[in-house]
Design goal:
Elements lengths: L2 H10 L9 H4 L16 H7 L5 E3 L13 E2 L2 E2 L18 H15 L2 E5 L5 E9 L3 E8 L5 E8 H6 L3 H11 L10 E6 L3 E6 L7 H8 L4 H20 L2 E2 L8 E3 L5 E3 L6 E2 L17 H4 L12 H15 L8 H10 L10 H10 L10 H5 L2 H6 L5 H6 L13
Antiparallel strand pairs: 1-4, 2-3, 5-6, 6-7, 7-9, 8-9, 10-13, 11-12
Helix pairs in contact: 8-10, 10-12
The structure holds adenosine monophosphate.
Length: 401
């Protein structure tokens, strides 16, 4: 398709806001994706990052027999390189899966010094709509690599004063490569828009899965938490705090694995200390709630508190401090929450060790991996993926736990 046609296809596409469905509109789900920041022009963002405007693309081309059939601007069916890894033996382990994913990324991440532009992509169906942009399924023409293309209008970004936030997001996310973190392969811009080339998370938003299932079974919650721990260990080792961990910012990959996305609030803080306040109230840790006065610094341990809130929400279906704004703040400041009786004692214990007011006393990521609840549900197997892909390799012992 010619670039002009592609542009026209873009204009024609209407995106149904997938966040608007009835599941989401119920109850108190008024959560926003965050906002803020000081002004830096989007033009300068793109110009100053010319060196970063290079995408690391796969050498691998999709097998034509499996590749998506393109109808007009719609990719009707796609096969990703990593799908080859789907037929796995029953005794496949997390370690194996991890190694394999690393190998896959080693293949995928062959750097090519390339300037990207819209004409290089075939645009497929809309995947979703965020506050400042729309996301489309896309295919890079020369390699057949399937990705998600996030399109944001510069004018809207300027209006929302989120240019600095976007620049930070790009800088941080393009330096991350982990199976539980959405990859940012590159970015480019034209006169009006900024395009982010993202890893395609085939099963969409975790938030929607949670709303649909109301709450997750303990085995599933535990495996998601274990994956969050793996991602956070990686981030914290690189001195990155995410600061906005919540189901809305987590996507699900084709194998049922979770992938943290949305690094708009994240910071790279090598000195380990930050003073700014931001984030969504329900997930806000007490030390961030107290504001920026005096020596009120905070560390990457903010993500541990949010992980506690997330664990609770996975298991209960709603966040522990959900209430009016004033009451939520009050409850967070006191660490005032109750866990319903259907939650197992082990899960309850982990939540208790994460939702600790004193950041220094929160359980460490390494200790979460050894926690009985995690060990019980994640003992060296890859069951979350297996179950998500139809339960083919699912063991019977933990089926109803
Ligand atoms: P965002 O603007 O990042 O909040 O994205 C808006 C919506 O697009 C999300 O809620 C997802 O439904 C979808 N989306 C964003 N990024 C991806 C991705 N990498 N893979 C699949 N869907 C995505």
């Amino acid at each position: 398709m010619e670039v002009a046609n592609l542009e026209a296809a873009f204009e024609r596409i209407t995106v149904v806001d997938e966040n608007d469905d009835q599941l989401v509109s119920s109850k108190t789900y008024h959560k926003s994706k965050g906002s803020v920041s000081t002004a830096v022009t989007v033009t300068s963002l793109s110009a100053s990052n010319a060196a970063a405007n290079r995408m690391k693309m796969p050498l691998q081309k999709l097998a034509t027999t499996n590749a998506g059939k393109i109808v007009g601007a719609n990719i009707t069916k796609v096969t990703l390189p990593s799908q080859a890894a789907q037929s796995r033996p029953a005794d496949d382990t997390v370690a194996n899966a991890h190694r394999r994913t690393l190998t896959e990324s080693a293949i995928i991440v062959q750097p090519q010094l390339k300037q990207w532009h819209l004409g290089m992509f075939e645009i497929g169906k809309p995947l979703g709509k965020g506050k400042f942009g729309r996301v489309y399924l896309a295919k890079e023409r020369s390699t057949g690599f399937v990705c998600a293309l996030k399109v944001q209008h510069k004018a809207e970004l300027q209006q929302g004063k989120v240019e600095k936030q976007l620049r930070r997001e790009i800088e941080i996310q393009s330096n991350l490569a982990h199976p539980n973190i959405v990859r940012l392969f590159g970015h480019f811009h034209d006169a009006k828009r900024i395009f982010l080339i993202l890893e395609f998370a085939g099963r969409g938003e975790l938030y929607k899965h949670l709303r649909k299932e109301q709450r997750f079974a303990e085995w599933k919650a535990a495996q998601y938490v274990a994956q969050m721990v793996a991602a956070l260990k990686y981030l914290h080792k690189k001195h990155v705090m995410h600061r906005d961990i919540k189901p809305e910012n987590i996507l699900v990959g084709l194998h049922g694995e979770i992938k943290i996305s949305d690094f708009g609030w994240s910071v790279h803080a090598p000195n380990n200390r930050r003073k700014t306040m931001c984030g969504t109230l329900d997930y806000l840790p007490p030390e961030m709630l107290r504001g920026g006065g005096g020596d009120n610094f905070y560390t990457e341990k903010v993500d541990l508190w949010s992980l506690g809130v997330l664990t609770y929400e996975f298991l209960v279906g709603e966040a522990p401090f959900e209430d009016t704004q004033v009451m939520t703040q009050r409850k967070i400041a006191r660490g005032d929450y109750t866990v319903p009786s259907f939650v197992s004692p082990e899960a309850r214990d982990l939540i208790k060790r994460l939702l600790v007011l004193d950041p220094e006393k929160r359980i460490a990521l390494e200790d979460i991996e050894r926690h009985p609840w995690i060990v019980k549900h994640c003992k060296g197997s890859e069951r979350a993926y297996d179950r998500a892909s139809g339960g083919k390799f699912r063991g019977s012992s933990e089926r109803d736990s």
